[in-house]
Structures are given as structure tokens and as C-alpha cells.
Design brief:
- By secondary structure, the protein is α/β, with parallel strands linked by helices.
- Helix content is 43%, strand content 17%.
- It contains five helices and five strands; from the N terminus they run E-H-E-H-E-H-E-H-E-H.
- The protein has a five-stranded parallel sheet with strand order 2-1-3-4-5, with helices on both faces.
- Helix 1 links the parallel strand 1 (9-12) and strand 2.
- Helix 1 crosses helix 5 and helix 2 (40-49) packs parallel to helix 3.
- The radius of gyration is 13 Å and the shape is globular.
- The relative contact order is 0.18.
Length: 127
């Protein structure tokens, strides 16, 4: 399956600068339908209101972390198969293992560039 650049993408990060960076990188890759949420709770509300093709979420947020958001998404019958990429500044092995066990599709450690992001997204979609 090739990468469908028309899918809506939800970026979840409490740091507006990171949201802007991710938006720009996604635009460089060719994604134009990009929304954002400032935490896991806000993301869940958006996920229930619109059908997204991919979630790219930061790990460290409050009140709901990206990890908790991932668990919520995976436990929701409507959202359970939604492709989910976790972004974090920490490359802790236990975090990667926990995210994999919770059903994350891929993992990106900051900092990264458009090529890395494209590779990670392509891997999720088997492209």
C-alpha cells in the first residue's frame, strides 16, 4: 500500500512550537489535512468527531499523556486500528517497550527531520 497523502493527520503535543514543526514537516512530505490537539483529552474529543488516518502524539503531556491516549485509542472499538506514532525526547528502552506493548505502530525520538518522519510513516503504512 502506498502512502496516501490525503488522509487527515492529528498531531498531539502540548508544546505549540513542536506542533508547528510537525505541521511543517508533514506539509513538506505532502500531507495537507493536519489538525492538532494540545493533550490526550483534547485529542480524544477530536478523534470522536472526525475520522483520522494517522495520529502523531508526543509522549509527555498533561493531564493525559500520549501513552494514556494510545491506551484509550487501542481500547476503543471505533479507533483501535488507527495508525499511531509516538514522538518523544527520551529514548528510554522501557518507554519503547511499553508503547509497543500498548500497540503503537512506530516511535520517533526527537530531534528528527522530514526524511525520518516520512520513513516512519511509510513503515506504518507498509510503503
Amino acid at each position: 500500500m502506498s502512502l496516501d497523502l490525503s488522509i487527515p493527520v492529528l498531531v498531539v503535543d502540548d508544546y505549540q512550537t513542536m506542533v508547528r514543526i510537525l505541521r511543517n514537516l508533514l506539509k513538506q512530505i505532502g500531507f495537507n489535512d493536519v489538525d492538532d490537539a494540545s493533550d490526550g483529552q483534547a485529542a480524544l474529543e477530536k478523534l470522536k468527531a472526525k475520522k483520522y488516518g494517522l495520529v502523531i502524539s508526543d509522549w509527555n503531556m498533561a493531564p493525559m499523556t500520549g501513552y494514556e491516549l494510545l491506551q484509550q485509542v487501542r481500547s476503543d472499538a471505533e479507533l483501535s486500528s488507527l495508525p499511531f506514532i509516538m514522538v518523544t525526547a527520551e529514548a528510554k528502552t522501557e518507554n519503547v517497550v511499553a508503547a509497543k506493548k500498548a500497540g503503537v505502530n512506530n516511535y520517533i525520538v526527537k530531534p528528527f527531520n522530514a526524511d525520518t518522519l516520512r520513513t516512519k510513516i511509510s513503515a506504518v503504512f507498509g510503503g
